[in-house]
Amino acid sequence: MRTHLSDITLAYDEAGSGRPLLLIHGYPLSRKLWAPQLVGLPDAARIIAPDLRGFGESDAPEGPYTVDQLADDCAALLDELGVREPVVVGGLSMGGYIALAFWRRHRARVAGLILAATRAGADSEAGKAGRDAAAATARAKGSEAIIDGMLPKMLAPSAYAARPEVVAQARRVMDGAPVPGIVGALMAMKHRPDSTALLAEIDRPVLVIHGADDVLIPPSEAEAMFAALPQARLILVPEAGHLLNLEQPASFNAEVRNFLLA
Ligand code: MLT
């Protein structure tokens, strides 16, 4: 489905009924990331999964984007869909950065947070330089170069030989990411604020869930967020890397279901 917001058309999937659950994908991904949740959780929630601006079937205007703008796009989508009640906001990786921005800007709309494979801190200086280098690569060589570089870091190291169908699925989730979206999102991540101090203020339930074998964002980041959050549950999913919801959908869905019903 597609809907026009004030300056952009966003594509999204919707499934299920009941408590609204907004699922925000990471970089350089698309809403296809959430296929196992759209199939596995419609009895537990009304799932709304957008393609962020710059990705999937949404418009990809020239950036730079900001995490605040991406969070505001999600809030505008909820408005457009008539969702007035507080929602559980779930985000994976960059989607988690956006979920924290959503909390900062729209906290009255938040019933709870799911922070998957993400971190609260800002980029280090080396990390910021890495964003610039990746943006230069995307502009010079196209999005395939970025996707080829990201794919080997997305899953648990053991998955690459053992689970070719999951590797193919991870690639499909990234395929077609346009260069303006990639560069716009890199700049959004580069300039995102440090949300560490915000964690202590989050007086809603939070599920912190992370792959035990994540090589892109180490599980220690999840442990640090859990320690700083007043009302959190921490789950480390075994045999899962960065895209834990794709790699271990049964475990991921069971934890989300428990969280929604708690
Ligand atoms: C993501 O998976 O969303 C990004 O790789 C996160 C990041 O680069 O910080």
Describe the model.
The protein has 262 residues and is an alpha/beta fold. Helix content is 44%, strand content 17%. The chain has eleven helices and eight strands. The chain has an eight-stranded mixed β-sheet with strand order 1-2-4-3-5-6-7-8, sandwiched between helices. Helix 4 crosses helix 5 and helix 4 packs antiparallel against helix 8. The two termini are 30 Å apart. The mean pLDDT is 97. The chain binds D-malate (MLT). The site of D-malate (MLT) has 7 residues, from loops.
In a few lines, what is going on in this structure?
By secondary structure, the protein is α/β, with parallel strands linked by helices. The protein contains eleven helices and eight strands. Helix 1 links the parallel strand 3 and strand 4.
Count of β-strands? 8
Main sheet? 8 strands, mixed
Shape descriptor? globular
Q: Describe the strand arrangement of the main beta sheet, using strand numbers.
A: 1-2-4-3-5-6-7-8
The stretches of 5 or more residues where confidence is low (pLDDT under 50) are none
Which small compounds were modeled alongside the protein? D-malate
* Helix percentage: 40-55%
Share of residues in strands? 15-25%
User: What integer value in Å does the Rg equal?
Assistant: 17 Å
Q: What order do the helices and strands follow? A: EEEHEHEHEHHHHHEHEHH
Please work out how many helical segments DSSP would assign.
11
> Which structural class do the helices and strands define?
alpha/beta
Overall mean pLDDT stands at 97
